[in-house]
Design goal:
The complex is a heterodimer of chains A (113) and B (113).
Chain A lengths: L2 E4 L4 E4 L4 E3 L1 E4 L5 E7 L5 E7 L5 E4 L2 E4 L9 E3 L8 E10 L3 E5 L3 E6 L1
Parallel strand pairs in A: 2-12
Antiparallel strand pairs in A: 1-4, 3-9, 5-6, 5-10, 7-8, 8-9, 10-11, 10-12
Chain B lengths: L3 E4 L2 E4 L5 E7 L6 E7 L3 E10 L2 E4 L6 E7 L2 E6 L8 E9 L5 E4 L3 E5 L1
Parallel strand pairs in B: 2-11
Antiparallel strand pairs in B: 1-3, 3-8, 4-5, 4-9, 5-6, 7-8, 9-10, 9-11
Chain lengths: 113, 113
């Protein structure tokens, strides 16, 4: 079945450092891929998405490219801020008799001033 | 903001008691979902609904039931709560032109003692 694997955290960075959070997936068809972010005490928020191979999703300085050949969707940001501290979830969504989304386990990011 | 509210936001209950969590949305979304979030597991789908009185099971549905008698309300019931059901529960809706995007409520933290 479909699955999502993302790097374990926590990831601790200093402000203005470069961020990469790795995400790989397995899927039977052609899923859409997502990154969600969860701030403390809140629900998940959609950060960015890509719906087909080679698409690049971007939002708030974060980017991720849908790589079908490596089944990956790594999240990157060139210069993190303290306010980026949160838990990040990689996810895929595919219609298989119903719309369902599979989430990775989440990666906690701490950014130090 | 997808207009999703959850109630209660926090609940402590005893083992063996019934518990009902409510998800309410104001924008006439067809698809609604209940997830649970546990450390190391990301989000796991409990049940979902694709219309009034139309529901289906997710990957962790044992011990849970749902009902949807109105478009705006999706209820999750724990018939006899157990300690393993201590978790944070999130409701979500699906929207977007291709229905791939999900938007989440603020969550309900349930503790079963």
């Amino acid at each position: 079945g479909n699955s999502v694997t993302q790097m374990e955290g926590p990831v601790t960075l200093s402000e203005e450092a470069f961020l990469t959070i790795n995400c790989t997936y397995t899927a039977t068809g052609y899923p859409s891929l997502f990154w969600y972010v969860q701030y403390p005490g809140e629900g998940l928020q959609l950060l960015l998405k890509a719906t087909k191979a080679d698409d690049k999703g971007s939002n708030k300085g974060f980017e991720a490219t849908y790589r079908k050949e490596t089944t990956s969707f790594h999240l990157e940001k060139g210069s993190v801020q303290v306010s980026d501290s949160a838990v990040y979830f990689c996810a895929l969504s595919e219609y298989t008799g119903g719309f369902k989304t599979i989430f990775g386990a989440g990666t906690r990011l701490f950014v130090k001033a | 903001d997808a207009g999703i509210t959850q109630s209660p936001r926090h609940k402590v209950t005893e083992t063996g008691t019934p518990v009902t969590l409510r998800c309410h949305q104001t924008e006439n979304h067809r698809y609604m979902y209940w997830y649970r979030q546990d450390p190391g597991h990301g989000l796991r789908l409990i049940h979902y609904s694709y219309g009034v009185k139309d529901t289906d099971k997710g990957e962790v549905s044992d011990g849970y039931s749902v009902s949807r008698s109105k478009t705006e309300d999706f209820l999750l019931t724990l018939e006899s709560a157990t300690s393993s059901q201590t978790s944070v529960y999130f409701c979500a809706i699906r929207e977007g032109a291709s229905l791939v995007e999900q938007y989440f409520g603020p969550g309900t933290r349930l503790t079963v003692t």
